[in-house]
Records
---
Amino acid sequence: MSLRLPVPLSCLALTLVAGCRLERRVPAVSADLVLRGALVWTADPDRPFAEAVAIRDGVLVYVGDRSGVERLIGPGTEVLELPGRMLLPGFHDTHSHPVSAGLELGECNLYDAETLADVERTIRDYVAANPDLPWIRGNGWALPIFPNANPTRQLLDRLIPDRPAFFYAADGHSAWVNSRALELAGVTRETPDPAGGRFERDAASGEPTGTLREEAMGLVASHLPPYSPEQRLAAARRALSEANRFGITTITDADVNDVTLEAYAELSRRGELTARVTAALASEVESSIGKEVERPRAVRERHQRLPRLQVNTVKLYADGVIESRTAALLAPYLDRPGDAGPLVYQPEDLAARVVALDREGFQVHFHAIGDRAIRVSFDAVAAADAANGGRDRRAVLSHIELFDPSDIRRFRELGAIASFQPLWAQADGYVTELTIPALGPARSRWLYPIASVLNSGAVVAGGSDWSVSSLNPLDAIEVALTRRGESEGPGPAWIEEERVELPAMLAAYTINAAFATYREHETGSLTVGKQADLVVIDRDLFSIPAHEISERRVLLTLLDGVEVWRDSSFVRR
Ligand SMILES: [Zn+2]
């Protein structure tokens, strides 16, 4: 083979050789904005730390030391001096539910209720403040507050006797309703449990007690008045601005249907998307495999080239959740002899769907919680690999709570991404009361093994599952470092071996998460040429104890160099 270079390449080589001299002769075009004086953490392995960045036309044109940025400061350049602050790439959230969370923000919110008394007070106040609502809708009740995670309709009847009421649990996998709601839905003692769902019942009478699991929720929820397009648009706007407040510039909505997608598309068309959005299209369990592919293909077709909106991912549920014993395990729940929990799809069916979606170029995003669900999700990705050949498929496994340790290596082997919700990796009521007793200590050792997954060479990305839990990445980062509740203060870690260090978690919320949505060339690190998506935090996270991370605040969030959030305490100029 001749070593003659094609012409364009040799030109490039000449330019590179002359680069230094050239740079000095040509006056630098000044930047629009320079930020300096902060500790800059870049997420770029070639230069993890820097002292200054410069932005022009929404793009990073400089990342480096303080003196080097001088030549980019002209008369029109805004310079922000940020001593003591930390500057890093905008955060990415690889699994959340922004539109539904935005809608919930306007309803009866129980996320902050820690006791039964809190729940009762919050509901009473909301009902009194909203006398004209035909339904009382609410969200966010914590399963551990109620015996057996099983609140009763009689309790809700006392609080809301005159109108139907429907309250989703914080994890979205259970609902609590009153007697009026059951009546309206025609649910009685005779109503059988639907496939994939369960009405909790009184052991003696067989009467529904008011708690609905999984698919049973839909039988009552279908009677709720629908949201209007305006309500959803407002909810999307509210949710993205909430995300910006926590420094989030890229977010995956992990369960998008036609109407929520329309809200994002409309915001995109209006130039009002204040974060990059990845829409993971909800699959329909009951649909045939052909439909499973046809529908998202048509939706993808209709939503090409919408700024900041990416529509090329399909979300599949492999199982439910451990707390309500609907997660699929390899061995039975200790408190339900013989019952290892259901899979949403039979393994061959899941694999066939994934093969078909993968053949069409879709990325697949799994909800996988139990060790069996994780295994069959990996098997489905392996089937896609065998059927369609190696390609850059980046399957995402989300939640990933309980592992059989022998499966951990499969992330790396299959190029799959581990999307943890690190906030859950703490010994709170969900874990100590509703999870460990069902698994026993040996299996519980493999709950949220973030360090083991990292050490296996997997790409670990972070996500919130908001509104299931806090949207704030700093809350989750702290818990991953401490394996303790974010308000608990210092003390022993839960499963010490699985604690991780700060750089790994920052990468999980920046460059790795950008990789998880095929955006690593555009954003995810502070690298010259990438979009200027960045966040200023009030303190350098490397210089404070891990248990204080969740107390730090985001002062400024930029998307494409444009301010999308600024704390009232932070003044520009
Ligand atoms: Zn979710």
---
Amino acid sequence: MDALLSLFPHGSAVDADGMLRIGGCRADLLAAEFGTPVLVVSEAALRARAREYADGLAARWPRSRVVFASKAFPCTAVQRAMLEEGLGLDVAGGGEIVSALAAGADPALLVLHGNAKSDEEIAMACEHGIGLVVVDNSDDVDRLEATVPPGRSQDVLVRVIPGVRAHTHASVLTGHADSKFGLAPAAAAELIGRIERSPRLHMLGLHVHVGSQILDVEPFAQSVAALSGLGGFAVYDLGGGLGARYTYDDDPPSVSAYLDALVGAAREGLPADAELIIEPGRSMVASAAATLYSVVTVKRGSRTFVAVDGGMGDNLEVALYGQRFEAAIAGRLDAADGETVSLVGRHCESGDVLVDALRLAAPRVGDVVAVPATGAYCHTLANNYNGNRRIPVVFAAGGAARLVVRRETWADLLARDVE
Ligand SMILES: Cc1ncc(COP(=O)(O)O)c(C=O)c1O
């Protein structure tokens, strides 16, 4: 039971009757009040992780900032919690600018990314006075020069490909030599020269990001080392990418170990008076949440399929990246063992598997199933496949729960159809 509980948000517990509690709230009562599937966030766990990052970086490199990579969980309640904990926000495009501003962000604390920023997004950045625009290519520079009003200048970072291939899924690798993101050092140096001559742009520093779900610290240190040949700058944004713990066997580096490696490399290769920025996403939010489903059917044959009322409509991580999750019957967390099942979703794809080869304790129709570590990239990749209504997000804290994103309605599904 302890192993299972350790995958749920910090502070989760099991009642005497075996029922899971998240943020002090019983899973059965959460399911009854908000319906299933529902994404439950422990607000205390979310905020504690934000402070762990902010305090850890400030202690090692005082001139520094943590900006949450909104893409990992872009909703105003999560972005607002990050802002309240003193973090900035990284925004990947117009939609995340809109939600960050709705969350109350000071535009000066936003960092805008994108390998294909549109005219509209560049215009939004200039109009709102977004603090840093990370330039990915020379077309970004053309657009910015055409958009920044005369007499003003936009602070920019240039995204550099560090040529580091981290050990992770190919779809979330970004720092390898032939990445679509950023520029190889020689091309970056050329663009830096152009920006330095531009009256509309202020060349402030460099950006690097090696990928996501990275479970060792070495690639991060290597990516910092790759920047030192490009000269000295005032700001270095070292990206995100630290892996999260999804399974019993996962053993990601701690935030401390990650920061030690990153800041150690910065001390060796970057100017001592530079400002450091980091952009954690997945490792900030993954473990702060769990998804609750209801079992719809149990089909026993050559295999046992336990099908729930959600699936790839609310968790695409499995289908996209083959990410392994674990799961348990929320009301029998204390069960000694169970049977081997395939936990599947309700969508019309055989690939709609939430967890394969999973031990579940006597699953029956109506049971609430809890899947931990769904805080990152689940809400944001949710979709309407098979007419799925995207699921709600609930914050649980101190035994009280509140809805922060409502479930989509049937009317929402029709709302964009104009004919
Ligand atoms: C530029 C940039 N920064 C930060 C992140 C956050 O990465 P992660 O969620 O793995 O921490 C990403 C995600 O891929 C990214 O593209």
